[in-house]
Amino acid sequence: MRARAGEGGDGSGAEASRARVRPVLVALDAETHDAARALGVATYRAEYGDLNDAADHASESWKKFCALMVKELRAVLDAGFDVILSDVDVVWLRDAAPYFKCESGDVDGCEEIRGADVMISSDNLSPTMDWELGARYAMRGIFNTGMMFIRNTRAGKDFLSDWARNLQAKDGAYSKLTTHQQVFNKMVREENAWPGLDVAPGASAKTRVLQSGSPLPSTGSPFAIGALPLRLFVNGHGYFMQWVNRKDGVWDDVKPYAVHATYTFDGSGGEAKRYRFQEVGLWALHDAAGEDEKFLTFELAPQNLTSEEPTIEDHLIVASANVRALVKAFAYAVSLNRTLAIPPLPCRCDKVWSGHDDVFSAKCRYPGANDENYLPGTCPLDHFVSGAKIRKAGGRFVPLASVPSPRAAVFVDAARGERRDDVLLTLGDIDRVPALKFDANHAALSSAVSHPEPWCAECLREACASVLAADVLRRGATRATRGGTAEMWCVSFTDPASSP
Predict the structure, then answer these.
(1) Which residues make Cβ contacts (< 8 Å) with residue 46, sequence separation at least 6?
(2) pLDDT the model gives residue 256
(3) Among residues 184, 214, 241, which one ends one of the domains?
(4) Cα distance between residue 111 and residue 226, in whole Å
(5) Is the peptide bond before 376 cis (omega within 30 degrees of 0)?
(6) Do 305 and 360 belong together in one domain?
(7) 339-342 and 295-299: which strand pairing?
(8) What is the share, in percent, of the chain residues with pLDDT greater than 70?
(9) Angle at CA 238, nearest 5°, toward 235 and 240?
(10) Residue 466 maps to a domain
(11) How far is CA 29 from CA 43, 63, 214, 270, 396, in A?
(12) Where is the protein found, in the record's own terms (predicted)?
């Protein structure tokens, strides 16, 4: 693990301890070092020269940090250990060492990955296809360096040395890349080829081992890459959308080792990651003000929908209802001086990064997850509103899942002026509660909740007018994208009759 102060490593470290994982945290500053030590996490300071706080991937400081991290990994191998690399936004649910080492039988199918010197997670979106096809599916996606295992072998050491060297390149193709993940993905693939790597000849049908398409410069030989199973080492979409909404039970016999908080839409900072873990009950620490914290929640009534299948028409109905409910509930929370405890929010369609993908042709799912059975379901808060903007405007809120005894909420008739002292109150069915205006002191909060960013998606195969019903199309606005070769349609959840 690696962290800077304020990145939120405390909760994930606590989860790692609970899962009987003993992480070693490499701290880049004294504050993080001391905080981790106080929690009982094994920690040491990394020596560095001119790193600064710049964490954007275009900064020179970030590439220096990445090279430093990889050199630290090599030092661990040189000390005689295998090493697990874990981003600070990974929660470990159980000890993965038996899987990585594969010394006690075929633990969770580990025999299929045992031959790899380097194992890595991915951003792929179909755990079902990944489970069935192994490396032959994984090789066509993007590898994610947030969860890795490197063996203490000659090949493992050579890989780390070349990785660090490529990160420090001053010219050539590697010098133009901005992250260690980009460099890794380039290292494993043959130049100007896709996917540019493959399984070894004669490999088993479900092998998880790939041979790099490009040799290591230091050896002139390819190296073995293990594609970690999506069901066991789960990315953000795989857990926060698919796992929590699974309908067919096919994952019930498989417990993940770790969850990586990717796939957040409200930034990639600590607040967004923590909230995402809190929504599914995976954050060990409570950030509430203390034992005197009082909460207010509400219930969402079922909406009149048009289909049992996920459709954009029904998504507009439930998403608009969610935003109306949040506006109303925040007003009452302010009035009662309570922290709003937000229940799971229903949804019928996925959300894509900056609207740049076509959910319409993927059955309202994120393209790549077309065949996964997770919608209709619930979606994270940042699919509808920006928690960061609400927090900046003074809004106090937590997921209901993070509140002790969430089912013990006591009804309060706040519209009639009732007041109670219970820790958790509920407004009941939010549709039955009359609207309450924010006072003038909370105008910024009112705006932050009631004016979220529009929801957007592309129409890549044909014009949006051919994909969307006329009445749906009129609710939003269409514009050209991808250099005029496609269209993007955007809609506001607050006022369906107007364009965003």
Answers:
(1) 2, 26, 27, 28, 68, 72
(2) 95
(3) 241
(4) 11
(5) yes
(6) yes
(7) parallel
(8) 91
(9) 95
(10) yes
(11) 11, 17, 36, 17, 30
(12) Golgi apparatus membrane
- How large is the average pLDDT for residues 297-307? 95
Distance CA 433, CA 430 (A): 5
Question: What one-character-per-residue DSSP string does 151-172 give?
Answer: -SSHHHHHHHHHHHHHHT-SSS
Residue 209 sits in the same domain as residue 305? no
pLDDT digits (tens, 9 = 90+) for 101-151: 999 889 999 999 999 999 999 999 999 999 999 999 999 999 999 999 999
Query: Is residue 355 domain-shared with residue 463, that is, in the same domain?
Result: yes
Both 376 and 485 in a single domain?
yes
DSSP 313-353: HHHHHHHHHHHHHHHHHHHHHHHHT-EEEEPPEEESS---G
Q: Which of 235, 267, 278, 237 is nearest to 11 (CA)?
A: 278
**Does residue 246 form part of some domain?**
no
* 335 shares a domain with 208: no
Q: At what angle do helices 60-78 and 180-187 cross, to 10 degrees?
A: 60
- CA–CA gap between residue 177 and residue 337 (Å, rounded): 49
Domain membership of residue 451 (yes or no) is yes
Spell out where 181-324 has E strands.
209-211, 224-227, 233-234, 258-260, 295-299
Residue identified by tokens 């398409």 is 213
Q: How far is CA 107 from CA 55, 98, 100, 102, 113, in A?
A: 37, 7, 9, 7, 11
Are the C-beta atoms of 224 and 115 separated by less than 8 Å?
yes
Q: Which of 61-75, 156-170, 344-358, 369-383 has the lowest mean pLDDT?
A: 61-75
Domain boundary among 202, 225, 241: 241
Residue 238 per-residue DSSP state: I
* 129/139 Cα distance (integer angstroms): 12
**Closest residue by Cα to residue 428 from 298, 338, 313:** 298
Q: What share of the chain is helix, strand, coil (3-state, %, to 5)?
A: 35, 15, 45
206 and 98 housed in the same domain:
yes
Contact 11, 285 (CB under 8 A): yes
Separation of alpha carbons 222 and 162, rounded Å? 12
How many domains are contained in the chain? 2
Phi/psi-derived region of residue 70, left when phi > 0, alpha when psi is between -120 and 50, beta in every other case: alpha
Tell me: do 236 and 292 sit in the same domain: no
Closest CA relative to residue 224, chosen from 173, 149, 126: 149
- Laid out side by side, the sheet with 42-45 consists of 2-3, 24-27, 42-45
- What single-letter amino acid sits at 138? A
Residues 165, 294, single domain; the answer is no
Residue range(s) defining the domain that contains residue 129:
50-241
Burial 60-88 (b: 16+ CB within 10 A, else e): eebbbbbbbbbbbbbebbeeeeebbbbbb
The answer to whether position 223 is within a domain reads yes
CB atoms within 10 A of CB 242: 28
